Amino acid sequence: MRRILTLSLSALALSAAMAAAEDITVGVTPGEHAEIMEEVAKLAAPKGLNIKVVEFSDYVVPNQALADGDLNANSFQHVPYLENQIKDRGFKLAAVGKTITTPMGVYSASLKSLDALPEGGKVAIPNDPTNGGRALLLLQDKGIIKLKEGTGLTPSPLDLAENPRKLKFLELDAAQLPRALKDADAAVINTNFALAAGMKPKTDAIAMEKADSPYANVIVVRQGDEDKPWVRELVDIYHSAEVKTFIDSKYDGAVITAW
């Protein structure tokens, strides 16, 4: 009788654990965001949190998919981009935890340094306001251009105060920037797309953003979901020592933990 009772209790415990399991879908962009979330998913599965990772090739769709209920969370964007999306599109979304910082870099197929940018040269930058502005701020930090006062984190090429080399800016979808290197003298590329294109930021970039930039990436959920148990579990696993070790060893400084 005792053996039967023990087996019954074990079955009940297993049943309860299965009932407590949660299935969620998380949207990411290719490269490090996808690779890190896949590692998080491996660690989460034994804890009863089953994560389906879905990749998107651009920065626009993941927030719309989250707002529409097609995703439970996404992990691909920094805070200025999220704030701009909420302002422009009215999304009711909330950041629940920091993930990584990926310093933006300047790349070129023909130049070895920014100083070699020719007069009238073409520079490709992202066409969304926050990442395009981030690219211009990087070029300003390196002394290539000067922006008008008060443009904040989202300047555009229309906000140039000084452009001594008379550079021409090509505003393109962020995911297409690696391909633009054959048509431009340089391109300012987000690290996730640079890595996805086979570039090594530490050795291939001719200039890099400072590590203390305000562009820490975040995990985002719909407003109202912030306090759900699976959200805390997701963030805690992402912030685990195992995930930090994975990031530090895999990306060799091109991707930096932000927590």
How would you describe this structure to a colleague?
- The protein folds into two domains: 125 residues, Periplasmic binding protein-like II (D-Maltodextrin-Binding Protein, domain 2, 3-Layer(aba) Sandwich), CATH 3.40.190; 104 residues, Periplasmic binding protein-like II (D-Maltodextrin-Binding Protein, domain 2, 3-Layer(aba) Sandwich), CATH 3.40.190.10.
- The radius of gyration is 22 Å and the shape is globular.
- It starts with a helix and ends with a strand.
- It contains nine helices and 14 strands.
- Helix 2 packs across helix 8.
- By secondary structure, the chain is α/β, with parallel strands linked by helices.
- 36% of the residues lie in helices and 23% in strands.
Per CATH, which architecture of the largest domain?
3-Layer(aba) Sandwich
Question: How many structural units, i.e. domains?
Answer: 2
**Largest beta sheet: strand ordering:** 2-1-3-13-4
Number of helices in the DSSP assignment: 9
Number of separate strands: 14
- CATH homology superfamily of the largest domain: Periplasmic binding protein-like II
Based on secondary structure, the structural category is alpha/beta
Which fold does the CATH topology of the largest domain refer to?
A: D-Maltodextrin-Binding Protein, domain 2
CATH class of the largest domain: Alpha Beta
Mean pLDDT over the residues: 92
Helix content: 25-40%
Span from first to last CA?
Answer: 52 Å
Low-confidence stretches: 9-19
Proportion in β-strands: 15-25%
**SSE order in H/E notation?**
HEHEHEHEEEEHEEEEHHEEHHE
Shape: globular
Q: Let me know the largest β-sheet.
A: 5 strands, mixed
State Rg.
22 Å
Family: Belongs to the NlpA lipoprotein family.
Keywords: Lipoprotein, Membrane, Palmitate, Signal
Protein name: Metal ABC transporter substrate-binding protein
Membrane topology: Lipid-anchor
